């Protein structure tokens, strides 16, 4: 019996974001291990200000003690950089990548199971984001923290 849908949900979210590949971006499971200043990065289950990957809560379902409902949030981080001081262009790229995440979580003819993370949860959707901008010695850098909220029956 599963004790949580969180591990499988993170794995399936990474799978949705890596196949097909997102042009000019790297998707990583957890914290980046390579130099992120050379390419756009989407990190699933990680944000730089902490090591929390997800937060969950469980309650009994209406079926009694046999099943439980689990609500949880998977955090992530988008990091974009262009090498010049053009914030509008870098910011637009960060939101373009956020849009890819949102689109990949929607059901389509090719991906009917996307909102359920391939059957792992009852639903998942993009629910929050936080924008950060900074000047570096190598140009503008924009980051977007994001949250994917999920509901599962375990």
- Provide the helix percentage: 10-25%
Structural class by helix and strand composition: alpha+beta
**How would you name the oligomeric state of the polypeptide chains in this document?**
single chain
SS elements, strand count: 6
List low-pLDDT spans: none
Please state the overall shape, judged from the principal axes of the Cα atoms. Answer: elongated
Helix tally?
Answer: 2
- C-alpha Rg (nearest Å): 17 Å
Distance between the termini: 8 Å
Order of helices and strands: HEEEEHEE
Strand content: 35-45%
Major β-sheet, in short?
6 strands, mixed
Verbal overview:
With 154 residues, this protein is an alpha+beta fold. It has helices spanning 6-18, 87-104; strands at 25-29, 40-44, 54-61, 64-81, 123-136, 139-153. Strands 1, 2, 3, 4, 5 and 6 form a six-stranded mixed beta sheet that branches. 31% of the residues are buried. The model has no long low-confidence stretch (mean pLDDT 89).
State the gist of this model.
This protein is an alpha+beta fold and 154 residues long. The chain has helices spanning 6-18, 87-104; strands at 25-29, 40-44, 54-61, 64-81, 123-136, 139-153. Strands 1, 2, 3, 4, 5 and 6 form a 6-stranded mixed β-sheet that branches.
Keywords:
154 residues; alpha+beta; 2 helices; 6 strands
Element layout with pairings:
Blueprint: H1 6-18, E1 25-29, E2 40-44, E3 54-61, E4 64-81, H2 87-104, E5 123-136, E6 139-153
